[in-house]
Amino acid sequence: MNAEHTVRSFDEDLKTLVKAVLRMGGLAEAQLANAVQALVRRDSDLAGQVVAADARIDALEQEINDHAVRLLALRQPMAADLRAIIGALKISGDLERIGDYASNVGKRVLVLNQLPPARPVASIPGMSRLVRDILNDTLDAYGTQDLHKAVEAWSRDEEVDHLYTALFRELVSCMMEDARNISACSHLLFVAKNIERIGDHTTNVAENIHFLVSGTPLRAARPKGGGIGDTGDRL
Amino acid sequence: MNAEHTVRSFDEDLKTLVKAVLRMGGLAEAQLANAVQALVRRDSDLAGQVVAADARIDALEQEINDHAVRLLALRQPMAADLRAIIGALKISGDLERIGDYASNVGKRVLVLNQLPPARPVASIPGMSRLVRDILNDTLDAYGTQDLHKAVEAWSRDEEVDHLYTALFRELVSCMMEDARNISACSHLLFVAKNIERIGDHTTNVAENIHFLVSGTPLRAARPKGGGIGDTGDRL
């Protein structure tokens, strides 16, 4: 009886952990959406809110960490349970980074709003939408432990890389056209890179889902080289 | 007797884990040194070696991961032992990223070697040397569990940020001077950013050392805002 109670309560503990990770993912997704909206609208208030809200994501990561370490110490889980906890630790680490990158976009917007508008801004929302779609699918896959969906989301990172490469070229062309665009476009290079990195971390999340659901790594067949995304352009 | 044996052997297990992390750190440090040497000498062979050698760091991380998870499962450690294992997991994650960034510098060198040389390259080795110094001290602190040294290394990340900001400005100026510099300088922007990010991850390592040695987080007093490093320049 007592053992059964312990088991049930451990399941509850795990569910709480997964829910916290999903909440963190939802926040990170919203941060990216808001940062890009702030960019397009040149809205410094919204950008400032994004920067400030990053602390909530960091706090959630700390909670998840503490909870996971407590579970490891108290429950001494094995096999799938152990993987679920290590997975939550790792996924929350990636989501924290995603939050960081979104917040960095927010900081760039604050700088960009001091500069004249640059045309390539118009290409950012498309790339961001794709990354958010993939992140959203990945989080769904985590919530439902859906291996197939995780792999499908993971394989779409290549599209992100293509969009990023196109954007990189557009930004360099824009700088070459007129030296007055250089400052703004330099910051936009990093905005684009930040969004591309969010895609990379989403890929990591998908890989971790694969591992925690199946017990085997997905890394072997990684869809791309090593996360640089734009060394293809010999400009 | 048996219990003592188990204890002793667990200590051995932990030492093996720490040594693997230190080896990984040494490799990551060497990768950064080689990548920057390849940049300065325009040496594509060396750059290619750096890119290829990243796989060894990734493999070491996987080994550390597997070892750590096995220890968690088999030994069910508590308190300081648990922190040591979680610490090794986290530190190896940061070292893997450091390796990634060094390898990205190598990839940029391969692109840069197709382009005319750009003057600001000369400012990269100084920044890289500082980051390597800090990484070296941080790894020493990990090997000796030296809290004081870890905090000291951690606090030097601010110097890195200043060098990065200066370099960012230099690169933008160089692009403005002559549009023919724009391609090379765009790639150098990312080289500089990669090295600055290596500094950030080194900071994370120092924070993890603090936690695993003392059981309390260092994050509260982080020396800087949020890892963007160059939003100060309203160019």
Commentary on this structure:
The structure is a homodimer of 235-residue chains. Chain A has helices at 2-41, 44-75, 79-112, 124-144, 147-155, 157-177, 182-214. The first copy, chain A, contains 7 helices and no strands. Chain A has a single domain, classed as Methane Monooxygenase Hydroxylase, Chain G, domain 1 (Up-down Bundle), CATH 1.20.58.220. By secondary structure, chain A is mostly helical. The longest helix of chain A is centred in the N-terminal third of the chain and has 40 residues, at 2-41. In chain A, helix 4 (124-144) runs antiparallel to helix 6. Chains A, B: InterPro entries: PhoU, PhoU-like_sf, PhoU_dom. Chains A, B: Keywords: Cytoplasm, Phosphate transport, Transport. Chains A, B: Plays a role in the regulation of phosphate uptake. Chains A, B: Homodimer.
Question: Any descriptors?
Answer:
disordered C terminus; mainly alpha; homodimer; Methane Monooxygenase Hydroxylase, Chain G, domain 1; 235 residues
Largest sheet composition of chain A: none
- CATH fold name of chain A: Methane Monooxygenase Hydroxylase, Chain G, domain 1
* SS element count, helices of chain A: 7
The CATH class name of chain A reads Mainly Alpha
Show unreliable segments of chain A. Answer: 224-235
Number of strands of chain A: 0
Helix and strand sequence of chain A: HHHHHHH
CATH superfamily of chain A: Phosphate transport system protein phou homolog 2, domain 2
Question: What is the CA–CA distance across the termini of chain A?
Answer: 69 Å
Largest interface, Cβ cutoff 8 Å: A-B, 45 and 45 residues
Mean model confidence by pLDDT of chain A = 90
Protein name (chains A, B): Phosphate-specific transport system accessory protein PhoU
Pfam families (chains A, B): PhoU
Domain PhoU (chains A, B): 21-109, 126-209
Main location (chains A, B): cytoplasm
